[in-house]
Amino acid sequence: MRFKDRLIVITGGASGIGEACARKFAEQGGRIVITDIHLDAAQRVTSDLDGHAIELDVRSDASVETAAESIENDIGPVNTLVTSAGVLQPPHPPHELEVEEFDRVMNIDQRGTFLTCRAFGTRMARRGAGAIVNIASVAGLRSTPLHSYTPAKAAVISLTECLAAEWGRSGVRVNAVSPGHTLTRAMQAQVDSGERDLDALASNTALGKLVTPDDIADAVCFLASDDAKAITGASLPIDAGWLAATSWHSYGGVREKYDRQ
Ligand SMILES: NC(=O)c1ccc[n+]([C@@H]2O[C@H](COP(=O)([O-])OP(=O)(O)OC[C@H]3O[C@@H](n4cnc5c(N)ncnc54)[C@H](O)[C@@H]3O)[C@@H](O)[C@H]2O)c1
Asked: Is residue 149 domain-resident?
């Protein structure tokens, strides 16, 4: 029960990776606050976990500040923040990427991460303790045809380092995980409808499989826990070796499984 009595706030916790994190923290004794733009979906998750659901739109400074203030006043001081609220974008060439779409992704994925870290992290720093785990992406570590999402996630990784240095002496650790393609319900639906090919996605990784939301949640819990007490400013890829394997395509792909002797 390594999170016994600790208060954990998760943005975008109503679905996917954020929901998996909420369930994993709860299994280990954490008290859960799920924040999301979709309150009804957040309530569906917290009804299983005996947690709190709060409406919060990460694009709005007022919404984030109001939620942070009411959580701290009404529920208690926040020990851990996980920023999982995020959106993807279609792989348009730049001349077809509407500036409104560019701004939408930046506002949620980059600016929203800053606003939530600022609201909760400043309060943690003033108390002298806390841990933040930002959900970035391997897209932020390589080039992709996602001309807003990828720079936004690179900025999240950079912000993680900036805030780690900002609040380190005040007892707040700030880390990021960078998921690879993750088999969320949304991804499974795309696979079921034939839009994405699971084998093609999996074949780009060293381990030959996709990661699951549970895999991400395990890493998030580790970074939030005292087991990671000397780790701050890090970005940990959880990608089944996608970063390691992609350059091997220039050499015909990764090695097949060795024959057993
Ligand atoms: N699924 C993947 O393959 C993958 C890979 C790398 C990184 N990520 C990142 O992981 C995070 C979670 O993604 P997911 O796949 O679980 O997606 P998801 O769509 O299942 O969950 C995202 C949640 O964020 C919420 N949200 C969206 N806009 C919001 C806003 N303005 N304010 C508050 N909440 C908002 C949604 O309602 C949803 O509940 C995202 O930041 C995403 O970029 C996902």
From this structure: yes
Regarding beta strands 172-179 and 235-238, do their DSSP bridges make them parallel or antiparallel, or are they unpaired? parallel
What strand order describes the sheet that includes 52-55? 52-55, 31-36, 7-11, 80-83, 130-135, 172-179, 235-238
Closest protein CA for atom 1 of ligand 1: 182
Is the model's pLDDT at 1 over the cut of 90?
A: no
- Span 178-202, pLDDT tens digits: 999 999 887 888 788 887 888 988 9
Phi then psi for 112, rounded to 5 degrees?
-65, -40
Which CATH number covers residue 102? 3.40.50.720
For ligand 1, say whether the CB of 2 is within 6 Å of any of its atoms: no
What atom in ligand 1 is closest to the CA of residue 182?
3
Tell whether ligand 1 has an atom less than 6 A from the beta carbon of residue 140: no
Active site residue 258: no
Is position 15 within any domain?
Answer: yes
In a domain, residue 175? The reply is: yes
Q: Is the distance from the beta carbon of residue 84 to the nearest atom of ligand 1 less than 6 Å?
A: yes
Neighbour-count burial of 72, counting CB atoms closer than 10 A to its CB (0-12 exposed, 13-18 middle, 19+ buried): middle
| Count of domains observed in the chain | 1
Q: Which domain holds residue 67?
A: 7-180+212-235
